[in-house]
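Extended Data, panel c. Modelled sequence:
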Amino acid sequence: MKKDLEILPEHLAIIPDANRRWAKARGLKPWEGHRAGADNMEELIKHALKRGINCLSFWGSSLDNLSKRPIQEKMALLDIYEKYFKRLLESKEIHDNETRINIIGRWEEQFPENVRNVLKELIEKTKNYKKKILTFFLAYNGDDEMMQAVSNILNNCKKGTEITSQLIKDNLMTRDLPAVDYLVRTGGEPHLSAGFMMWDIANAQLYFTETKFPDFGVEEFDRSLAEFQKRNRRLGS
């Protein structure tokens, strides 16, 4: 029988909210909050791999993040992405744990060439790893994903094709990911923006914390896992 400490979500997804509010409370520029969030994310990934999380996902940016925010903030955010993902390319933890990295969303349409190239290199460099999965959602909205899936089915399936849950899953951006067991959102706003992974979180346990993401360190991360271990997932039974 496994100890409680070993009961972990197979797929943990995190919405790392409130970088900007964290910065504002300190009299800093918004991108300084994003930078602090990126630094924290790096530490959480190392810790999650060490704890034994097999599939970990982060929502890095929505389509609205890139289209509606001031150009100076957008450029700073893209610069943070480039620097952060270059560091990830050389991460000992990623390679020692044979962690395959996915990037999901419309980043190829939205990001400049220098950032796209780093992301493509990261995907290529880890594509044969099979032990763990680390996914970043960039320029992603859940409603956009669902509309794209419906469009794919209409365009590629014959008339009269039976619409099954598997057919829908096969046409999602997340087709290669397991369903989410546990969704954590930081920042004190207990809602799901733009339908984040709406198909895949249907049976997920939810955890909301007031803590802004740059302050959501490994201790609170572990507390969130301890909370998951207490819950009884009935899945409709």
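Residues 23 and 32 are 6 Å apart (CA to CA). This feature is highlighted in the accompanying rendering.
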